[in-house]
Inverse folding.
């Protein structure tokens, strides 16, 4: 991927982690935060609801950190959620978004313990006018890219800004 997302990393707790309808998804679970950024605020928040968070981010974390995350993840019945929050919207090139979605799909195909995937996109004003660092599009714009990868999964749009895509399977 070409986009240096480290420049767009923000110290905040993404709305998806605080979304009331997702609290039971995250509570007492293990989450792979795919593209989780360089800050640990979300991890600290999730600790408070007994969710163990593993941040994997090739731009904002060191290679050693990411290798450690991969080595320490036990997908055999223990990782139930993969979150990809405010990542797709900073990937201006469709090939880059396809790579991220493909990697997450690979993980869900490989590990049946993953029952939930959560995407969140930054929408700004939903004008659809892209900037140098943001696509500025609503979740419905990303849906065609996700629908093919997650065919057969159930889905819903959540959040006060309607910018959270929750996918799940039994």
């Amino acid at each position: 991927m070409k986009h240096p997302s480290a420049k767009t990393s923000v110290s905040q707790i993404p709305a998806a982690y605080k979304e009331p309808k997702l609290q039971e998804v995250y509570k007492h679970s293990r989450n792979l935060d795919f593209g989780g950024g360089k800050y640990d605020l979300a991890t600290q928040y999730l600790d408070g609801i007994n969710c163990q968070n593993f941040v994997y981010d090739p731009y904002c974390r060191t290679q050693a950190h990411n290798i450690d995350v991969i080595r320490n993840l036990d997908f055999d019945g223990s990782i139930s959620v993969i979150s990809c929050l405010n990542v797709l919207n900073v990937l201006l090139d469709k090939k880059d978004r396809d790579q991220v979605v493909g990697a997450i799909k690979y993980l869900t195909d490989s590990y049946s313990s993953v029952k939930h995937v959560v995407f969140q996109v930054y929408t700004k004003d939903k004008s659809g006018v892209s900037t140098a660092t943001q696509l500025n599009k609503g979740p419905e714009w990303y849906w065609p890219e996700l629908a093919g990868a997650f065919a057969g999964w159930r889905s819903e749009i959540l959040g006060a800004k309607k910018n959270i895509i929750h996918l799940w399977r039994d």
